[in-house]
Amino acid sequence: MKFGTKTIHAGITPDPSTGAIMTPIFQTSTYVQEAPGVHKGYEYARTQNPTRTVLEANLAALENGIDAICFSSGLAAMDAVLKLLNPGDEVIATDDLYGGSYRLMTKVFGKYGIKFQFSGISDLGKLDALITPKTRMVWVETPTNPMLNIIDIEAVCQHVRDKNILVCVDNTFASPFLQNPLDLGADLVIHSATKYLGGHSDVIHGTVITKNTELAAQLRFLQNAVGAVPGPQDCFLVLRGIKTLHIRVERACHNAEKIAAFLQQHPKINRVYYPGFESHPGHEVAKKQMRMYGAMVSFDIIGGREEDARKVLSGTHYFSLAESLGGVESLIGHPASMTHGSIPREERLKVGLTDSLIRLSVGIEDVADLIEDLEKALDQI
Ligand SMILES: *Cc1c(COP(=O)(O)O)cnc(C)c1O
Fold it and tell me: For the residues 64-80, what does the mean pLDDT come to?
């Protein structure tokens, strides 16, 4: 089954009791048993819910895994993955990481004796220097947020293959339409389904996908034992969003390509970060491991003044000033004060995350309107 068919059909069959073509929202907490232990596979809704079961089968197919385990948010999915570890274990993670992931690692799991090191993982020499006999996991985010660096997933996986180290890829920024880390050797993929999978900015949801039966069983255990499960309505919304994933992401990527080209030639812009440019240091790897170059674009205003960035941020009409990404509508954000405000300024500046950096999540509107919108906002500088 090709990707654009999987989004609509994989794991989904009409409801057997009514023929309803859309998966029903099973808004129930428990299921009646005929006799003690005699039931239809569903006992209690933390453990199993039919709406969730369908979504999980669909997500597993999209990432070419054997199982997808769903959670009430992307961070809850990540929490489950980190709970596979034990005190004393070490994790090496991408340095340019989603702020909430950084916080979960350092402020929550750090307390339980798990050690995290952050590094530009694309340099395998640097990665090697951090690996110790206690290293149990490498956490990769690619493209990174907001600098849009690219990490070679296959190279990282091959590099640690014989070392008893799990590789987990946060595939949120790419979506399964653009990139399938399990095919490149990763053990686990997580998504904040809040973003491209849901796609309509109306739900918070997360998932972990694997093709390793043992990891799937451990995660399934954690899902039930910890209980951060998504509600059936949220599962329905994600299922509904996925049906147009391939169409939405493809259109958003085309729009992003045109917007990046427009920004690149604009006299008030200093640098544009977009992996689709041949001059981007990760371009060749992106070309190899992604289907298109994504719909996130970051850029820096010439002169580096925050006040200029603020004029642009409040000067757009179709680009809404908001955190998050991956919805049908375009968003604009200021990483230094919004998503990455908790990172010390000196640390930010080291990776190019300046006070005048602006991040776009390009939506699926008509690109001519989006470019005109940015042009008008840039005129206000
Ligand atoms: C949003 C996001 C998360 C967290 O997901 P939530 O659904 O907000 O909990 C994790 N990783 C990345 C890359 C994200 O963009």
Answer: 98
